[in-house]
Design a protein that fits this description.
It is a single chain. The protein is of the alpha+beta class. It folds into two domains: 2-123, Glutaredoxin; 130-196. It contains seven helices and four strands. Strands 2-1-3-4 form a four-stranded mixed beta sheet. Strand 3 and strand 4 form a beta hairpin. The longest helix is centred in the C-terminal third of the chain and has 45 residues, at 128-172. Residues 1-19 have low confidence and may be disordered.
């Protein structure tokens, strides 16, 4: 199941050109029945298809792309839960969509909800698996911050050691350091003059 969710997220990130169509259902009961039969997940898209700019962008840049369509046909039964402003919609569908928005506590558009074939919401914040994964990610972030801080300390230490060594060298052998700097200047000047030709 985790692989399917990771695959879903990966498919969403692919934004390539294409013209294939995906059959979006509007009846959740039919979608769940189809998902059970075909052993797929249900993807509900709560959208304002004719007014919500982010919803329109999501459809154009993700849902209408061939990679997503190919993935969805294999693993998903897509359901559009639409809240249009100008598009005509049957009163029964409007009522059903409102009930679903309340049931899934939809606060804005677009909102994506994924269900398994039995209707269980996947990725819910209250789901113990999600809590475990969040904890694991939080722990990994803390570990990464510690590693970055340790690496930064090591780089600072090495930079200070290099500075101190070069400072000791320059103060211990000033004429030799001047000679090396002059030689480096001549070499850079030569490289610049040959480059211009």
């Amino acid at each position: 199941m985790k692989k399917l969710l990771v695959g879903l997220i990966a498919a969403w990130t692919l934004a390539q050109a294409g013209a294939a169509e995906l059959n979006w259902l509007t009846d959740l009961d039919k979608a769940q029945s189809q998902a059970k039969t075909e052993k797929k997940l249900v993807l509900m898209d709560f959208t304002g298809s004719d007014w919500c700019s982010w919803c329109i962008k999501l459809h154009k840049e993700v849902f209408d792309q061939p990679e997503f369509i190919e993935y969805a046909k294999k693993y998903l039964v897509p359901v559009e839960i639409d809240f249009p402003r100008t598009k005509k919609q049957a009163p029964e569908l409007k009522k059903a969509n409102q009930a679903l928005a309340q049931k899934y506590d939809i606060k804005g558009y677009p909102t994506i909800v994924v269900l398994d074939a039995s209707g269980k919401k996947l990725g819910d914040a209250a789901d113990p698996e999600v809590k475990r994964l969040r904890s694991k990610v939080a722990s990994a972030v803390v570990d990464a911050k510690k590693s970055i801080a340790s690496a930064a300390d090591q780089v600072q230490r090495q930079a200070k050691e290099a500075f101190d060594a070069s400072d000791r060298y320059v103060h211990g052998q000033p004429w030799e350091a001047i000679g090396i700097a002059a030689l480096a200047g001549v070499a850079v000047g030569f490289l610049i003059s040959t480059r211009r030709q």
